[in-house]
Amino acid sequence: MKGKPEQIPTLNAYNYRDSLRHLAPLLTQPIPRTQTMMHYPLIRAASGLTRPLGMLVVILAGTLLAAYLTSLEMLFRPLPGGPATHPLTAAALLLLGLPMACWRHRHRSRIALPAALAALAIGALRLADIALDAHLLEYITPFRDSLAAQAEAGTPVKMGLNTALMTVLLAMALILEGHRRYLPSQLFAFLGLGFPAVAATGYAYGLADFHGQMALSTVAIALLVGTGILSAGAHRGVLKAMLSPWLGGRIARVQVVLAYLVPFTIGYLLVTLVQATAKQLFGLFVVIVSGFIVVLVVVSAMFQEHVDRRRRGAERQLAVAATTDPLTETANRRLLLQTAMHEVERAKRQGQPLSLLMVDIDRFKDLNDCYGHAAGDMVLSTIARAMQATLRKQDLLARYGGEEFAILLPDTPIAGAVHLAEKIRARIEGTLFPENVGRVTVSVGCSDNQNATDFRELLVATDKALYAAKALGRNRVETSAGSGPRDLGAIAQPA
Fold first, then answer.
1. Given this model, what pLDDT does residue 6 score?
2. Residue 126 in contact with residue 137, Cβ under 8 Å?
3. Is residue 212 a contact partner of residue 160, using CB atoms and an 8 Å limit?
4. Contacts of 383 (CB under 8 A, 6+ apart)
5. pLDDT of residue 261
6. CA 350 – CA 399 distance, rounded (Å)
7. What pLDDT, on the 0 to 100 scale, is given for residue 20?
8. 3-class SS at 416?
9. Angle, CA of 355, 358 and 364, to the nearest 5°
10. DSSP symbol at 268
11. How many Cβ atoms sit within 10 Å of the Cβ of residue 105?
């Protein structure tokens, strides 16, 4: 995403400066997918429609072909004097329905490709007839006597241009779906569905130019074919996004339904109820639909902002959980390392001092063994609160591990760090802990960035100073350079 991310000034009531900038890679890592898209209810339901729709298409298309055998004109010509379904149109729809009726998820049907290619050939031959003014389809057209009788009666049966284009597009969609090219398959299916959708609008409005020679029976079966092809790939591509249970899917479903139904209803009401000229109807339709689109966009934006605000709050909570020690409510080691690297580089660029304290609770293992882990947790929390109350807003207190804490002190020389460390040591020593624990002491190591080129070197120097404080009797403060003429390398390991 371009632009600056939203600023989050505080984390768990402590200001951790610019540390959240370093959390961006963590928050944008892909989440492992623990379940497939087929586990989503709407996608599973949509995929389950493919076979029933295919069977229905086969039954209806077969019925139309049988109607030519029995001369039941009302089946292939639903509206008296209106367009009729051509036998080859019914055959092409039957061919497209057969693979759908045998469809199984992640299993290729052996008849899918031959059936789709045969339907594609029918549509392509009709397009060639129209383009070349030829009569190629006559050689493969069945029921010629019935068609001739219809022509003599003044109601010829023809496959229109819109029907031929629809057949080609739906056949291509089925072929691509069989090769698991779901996105282009859905694109062809949507384009193919556009022709029966326009024809349905023409029948609803009484506009013959909209449906042309596409019969109402062809419209109904073609809509079933297109829907079935789309449902077969509902777990991928555009359908996956629209049927997902997440925010984008919910918004898309509402918008698609409203975007078709509302203009359709408005247009129907205008055509049937309003007495006006064509230009006035068109202008009124544009005004009403434009207003509807504006309202739809505004409502969608409000809904999306409401849900997105909850998402941003969840991300804040995630950032806190990822960077905070749950027991002491201080920063954890991850945030310390990220912030320290940033602060070391900043101090180096600006020539400012930077100090680090390492605080270790003396004989904490003995305390745990004697009073139990609950008392140990209480001691850790109490000491963390005491240290946090002593620090400035820009200082960072982190639990480094076990009974060890680290304190990052930006813009602080070693003298100030030693003064603060002694203040912390004395405050903890003077604290009377409950649970019969009594008094607890800490040892503190101090170091600054004077001789450190990076945080690793600063951490090693501070750790040596803490090691020295432990070796010299505990409950004291030591610096990496020594508080006196000591050689830290010569100090023996404490017991």
1. 39
2. yes
3. yes
4. 359, 361, 405, 428, 431, 440, 442
5. 80
6. 28
7. 41
8. helix
9. 165
10. H
11. 12
Sequence-ordered alpha helix ranges (H) in 5-140: 24-27, 41-47, 50-70, 73-76, 87-101, 112-132
Question: What six digits make up the tokens of 29?
Answer: 């890592």
Q: Where are the alpha helices (DSSP H) in 102-207?
A: 112-132, 144-152, 161-178, 182-205
Give the pair of three-digit tokens for residue 265.
């209803």
Provide the CATH topology of domain 333-490.
Alpha-Beta Plaits (3.30.70)
The answer to whether 352 and 397 are in contact (CB under 8 A) is no
Nearest Cα neighbor of 107 from 47, 167, 67 is 47
Residue with the bigger pLDDT between 412 and 311: it is: 412
Residues 6+ apart with CB under 8 A from 34: none
Band of pLDDT at residue 279, cut at 50, 70 and 90: low
Q: 372-395 pLDDT, tens per residue?
A: 989 999 999 999 999 999 999 999
Residues with Cβ within 8 Å of 151's Cβ and at least 6 positions away in sequence, in order, are 157
Residues 6+ apart with CB under 8 A from 240: 37, 43, 234
Over residues 61-75, mean pLDDT: 92
**Nearest to residue 86, comparing CAs of 154, 140, 9, 35?**
140
Residue 53: half-sphere exposure toward Cβ, Cα within 13 Å: 23
Burial of 63 (0-12, 13-18, 19+ CB in 10 A): middle
Q: Which residues contact 451 (CB under 8 A, 6 or more apart)?
A: 457, 461, 480
- To 10 degrees, what angle do helices 333-350 and 278-323 make? 90
Please tell me the distance from the alpha carbon of residue 463 to that of residue 40, in angstroms, as a whole number. Answer: 52
Q: Which residues contact 187 (CB under 8 A, 6 or more apart)?
A: 173, 238
Task: Give mean pLDDT, residues 305-323.
Answer: 81
Please report which helix (H) or strand (E) contains residue 273, including its range: helix 247-273
Residue with the two structure tokens 């010509």: 77
Q: What is the radius of gyration, based on Cα positions, of the chain?
A: 38
Give the pLDDT confidence score for residue 165 in this predicted structure.
96
First to last CA, the chain: 55
Q: Could you give the C-alpha distances from 431 to 371, 374, 387, 428, 440, in angstroms and in order? A: 17, 18, 12, 5, 8
C-alpha span between 319 and 295 (Å, rounded) = 36
The encoded tokens of residue 70 equal: 């029995």
List Cα–Cα distances, 397 to 123, 393, 412, 437, 467, in angstroms: 74, 10, 14, 24, 20
Q: Are 400 and 333 a contacting pair, CB within 8 Å? A: yes
Helix, strand, coil fractions of the chain, as percent rounded to 5 = 65, 10, 30
In this model, does residue 8 exceed pLDDT 60? no
Instruction: Report the candidate in 175, 109, 102, 161 with the shortest Cα–Cα distance to residue 130.
Output: 161
User: Residues 81-94: what's their mean pLDDT?
Assistant: 94
- Encoded tokens for 30: 């892909």
